[in-house]
Amino acid sequence: MKSLCGVCLCGTLWAGGVYLYFWLVFIILVGEDFVKARLGDAWSFLEAAKKGFLESRGDPVRVRDAAEKAWNAVVQATDAFVYAFTGSRPLSHYERRVALRDIERRFEGVKRLGLRDRYMERYKVLHGETFYEGLVDLGEVEVELEKVEEYLKDVELLLKGART
Q1: CB 22, CB 12: distance < 8 Å
Q2: Does residue 33 fall inside a structural domain?
Q3: Count of beta carbons in the 10 Å neighbourhood of residue 37
Q4: Would the N or C end of the chain have less CB density within 10 A of its end CB?
């Protein structure tokens, strides 16, 4: 049989659901790589944000850049989390919010951690107020960096629990 996608041998595996089984295994393996990569990116962005903030010496442009890097750490961690729980990659902030809301409805432990509310608060302060509006409050950004680290740790704990 000719390949269905034209790239691999997946079409040759179609026989009584075997094709579906191998495709699901492929998605799971690729998904695991996606989750690990996004979490790695999240930690890298947070470290860059902390370094940038410390080196900014209060320079508003550099503080705003650090805030945006910290926000991106939250986005990357959220993408990993949503993908691990739903199998789909969110493509917008709206899709992330909806996915977090839906996951919180299904899993009480996730709801108790308030990931959606925490995501939205980082969005508001780091991305909206600090980066876009230019409201540079050094004390606020310092607190937000700590909260981003807590968020990343909680996402990792939830993902570890989901894998076991």
Answers
A1: no
A2: yes
A3: 13
A4: C
Number of folded domains that form the chain: 1
CATH number, domain at 46? Answer: 1.20.120.330
Task: Give tens-digit pLDDT for 79-114.
Answer: 999 999 999 999 999 999 999 999 999 999 899 999
Residue with tokens 């442009």: 61
Quote the radius of gyration of the chain (alpha carbons, Å): 19
Domain span holding position 126: 10-163
Give the number of other CB atoms < 10 A from CB of residue 95. 14
**Residue 2 belongs to a domain:** no
- Are residues 160 and 80 in contact, defined by beta-carbon separation less than 8 angstroms? no
Locate tokens 């740790």: which residue? 153
pLDDT in tens, 112-141: 999 999 999 999 999 999 999 999 999 999
Is residue 134 exposed (0-12), middle (13-18) or buried (19+ Cβ within 10 Å)? Answer: exposed
Residue 136 near residue 64 (C-beta atoms within 8 A): yes
Whether the predicted model's global pTM rises above the 0.85 cut = no
Residue 4 lies inside a defined structural domain of this protein: no
Q: Which residue has the tokens 């432990």?
A: 109
Q: Does 57 reside within a domain?
A: yes
